[in-house]
Amino acid sequence: IHAAIIALPTLFHIEPNISTCTAEELAALLTSSKMICIVGYDLNAEAGIPHYSDVLNGVWSRPESRLNPFDSDMNYRQVMQWFACRRNLIKRNANFPAYRVLGDLKKRLNFPIATQCIDGLAGLNGVQLEMEIFGNVFQSKCYSCGHEDVSGLTSNCSGCGGRLFPNVTMFNWNVREKTRDALISQLANVELALLIGVDERLFPFSSGYPWAHHGLKALRFDEGIIRLQAEHEKLLRGVDLAVYLKTCGVKSELIDRVAKVKTYEEIGIQELLALVSYLIQQKLGNE
């Protein structure tokens, strides 16, 4: 079953020999496939929340100054302050329509969502997640007894009085094996993996297993481009999708703006999600 872990090639440029995925093909794939969605930090970054690893590079980058919160009281206090700063940043940027668009797609197409992010941003926008792979910074877990509290962080565990930490994976503590196993099981039983700004350095993409197994297709959202990765990779540019929607009579300021862009880097992941939402509404409305 562990062969279900997928690793994807990094392709941030358009290869001239890669074929095009049409809007009709994309709509048919999304409305006919059993799928799962995995969200990564590149989406949250568009909400103004730095990538977790970028922050690590600034906070815990030097070996001589790594702040392992389990080593000393001083490290514990500093790490807890850092997490508090991140929670405040998330709250300031909590209103992020991209997650509400994703939530609408989830309802229309009926798929579960897993996230690599610890930021809890989906929940703050009313979207239920089935799997938080690395935990949630707004929840807590006791280091001594393992008691979990979804209501937030206090100083000590209500059960044993032990020290509480954010309920996230860090320094090989709190690795969420059940969640990971559940995700692997899901990947083994779907036809399509919808990948929204994922980080290939993190689970489930960091294992080195081949991504094409049992006919699984991956539909990847990066800057300005949707990539269908199956036996052969196909691309659909956001600008071409916007032009297609205009020809179908779908009216939107976003569609009009995206249809005029000159380079695909001008289109973010959140714009791609909105375009796909329009496409699905148009597809299902015509059936």
Protein architecture, described:
The chain is an alpha/beta fold and 287 residues long. It is 36% helix and 17% strand. The chain is built from 10 helices and 11 strands. It has an 8-stranded mixed sheet with strand order 1-11-10-9-8-2-3-4, sandwiched between helices. Strands 6-5-7 form a 3-stranded antiparallel sheet. Helix 8 runs parallel beside helix 10. The radius of gyration is 20 Å and the shape is elongated.
> Cα distance, first to last residue?
37 Å
Provide the low-confidence segments as ranges.
1-16
> What is the β-strand count?
11
| Lateral arrangement of strands in the main beta sheet | 1-11-10-9-8-2-3-4
Question: Considering DSSP H and I runs of 4 or more, what fraction of the residues is helical?
Answer: 25-40%
Shape summary? elongated
Number of helices in the DSSP assignment: 10
* Average pLDDT taken over every residue: 86
In percent, how much strand structure appears in the residues?
15-25%
Largest sheet: 8 strands, mixed
Radius of gyration over all CA atoms, rounded = 20 Å
Sketch the topology as an H/E string, one letter per element: EHEHHHHEHEEEEHEEEEHHH
User: Helix/strand/pairing class, anyone?
Assistant: alpha/beta
List the helices and strands and how they pair.
Layout: E1 19-20, H1 23-32, E2 35-39, H2 41-45, H3 52-59, H4 73-92, H5 97-109, E3 113-115, H6 121-124, E4 131-132, E5 135-142, E6 148-149, E7 164-168, H7 177-187, E8 192-196, E9 217-222, E10 225-229, E11 233-237, H8 238-247, H9 253-258, H10 269-285
Parallel strand pairs: 1-11, 2-3, 2-8, 3-4, 8-9
Antiparallel strand pairs: 5-6, 5-7, 9-10, 10-11
Helix pairs in contact: 1-10, 5-10, 8-10
